[in-house]
Design a protein that fits this description.
By secondary structure, the protein is mainly beta. The chain contains one helix and 15 strands, in the order αβββββββββββββββ. The strands form four sheets. The chain has a six-stranded mixed sheet, with no helix packed on it. Strands 1-3-10-5-6 form a five-stranded antiparallel sheet, with no helix packed on it. Strands 2-11 form a two-stranded antiparallel sheet. The longest helix is centred in the N-terminal third of the chain and has 25 residues. It is elongated. It starts with a helix and ends in a 12-residue tail after the last strand.
Length: 250
């Protein structure tokens, strides 16, 4: 009887140990991968100026269908985000450099044939992959996102540019790619620092003498290192941009 009880206790202990090991492995956190090759190119860096933006990065883990890409901005600093009048779906173009593919998008939902649903919030731009067309991003793909009013690879023109913050300083833009929200499989993450400055242009002025005078050799045959007569000057007159002036002597 004692042996049976002992064997039962051993079995229960082994089962408990196995469950504890499995449970322990299941709750180990999965770390987010870091995006690479990130860049944020602004047309203007001056405070309060409207500016086109080009965001580019290399996907580390890829972005599966029904997942998303998010560009996060400092809260309430960039004008035109999340307002009734401001940035819209037509001002955001999503381009895969690796596959030379531009994703079709919509600003309302994934009801149609569009590959991506664009959502502009108060401090972010989110690109959701619609389940119908099955679009996605493979690991290692280079992704470029155009934000603003300029022509892209698709020859589509936007209408609105985001407005830079009113205060100068380093502004951090955050990228998330992957599942919506933090869970068992957190998204890949990256950050970029953009310097917003009081002035981003330098005006250079200079005075250029419009009258040029040349000292010429008057030797009419091969040059011998000297002149047949004393050197003299040939006045070319007032020069005009794009034109070549000659002396009266030819």
């Amino acid at each position: 009887m004692k042996n049976k009880i002992f064997r039962a206790v051993v079995k229960i202990s082994l089962v408990s140990l196995l469950l504890a090991i499995v449970f322990q492995f299941n709750i180990l956190p999965v770390k987010a991968a870091a995006l690479t090759g990130m860049s944020a190119t602004f047309e203007r860096l001056k405070v309060s100026e409207s500016s086109n933006q080009t965001i580019q990065f290399t996907s580390t883990s890829g972005v599966a269908n029904t997942d998303m890409i998010e560009i996060g901005y400092p809260a309430l600093e960039f004008g035109g985000l999340g307002g009734k009048v401001g940035l819209g779906e037509d001002d955001v173009e999503f381009y895969n450099v690796t596959t030379a593919h531009t994703y079709t998008d919509d600003s309302t939902s994934c009801a149609g044939a569009e590959e991506v649903y664009v959502n502009v919030a108060a401090s972010s731009i989110r690109l959701f992959f619609c389940p119908g067309p099955g679009a996605s991003v493979a690991a290692g793909d280079v992704i470029r996102i155009y934000v603003g009013a300029f022509t892209t690879e698709t020859a589509e023109d936007g209408d609105f540019k985001l407005i830079n913050p009113v205060a100068a300083g380093t502004k951090v833009i955050t990228l998330f790619t992957g599942p919506f929200g933090i869970g068992i499989n957190p998204p890949d993450i990256g950050t970029m620092a953009v310097p917003i400055v009081d002035s981003d242009q330098v005006i250079v002025t200079a005075n250029i003498d419009a009258l040029l005078t040349f000292d010429l050799d008057t030797n009419t045959t091969a040059w011998t290192g000297g002149d047949d007569a004393a050197p003299y000057s040939v006045n070319l007159g007032t020069l005009t941009a794009g034109a070549v002036a000659t002396s009266a002597d030819g």
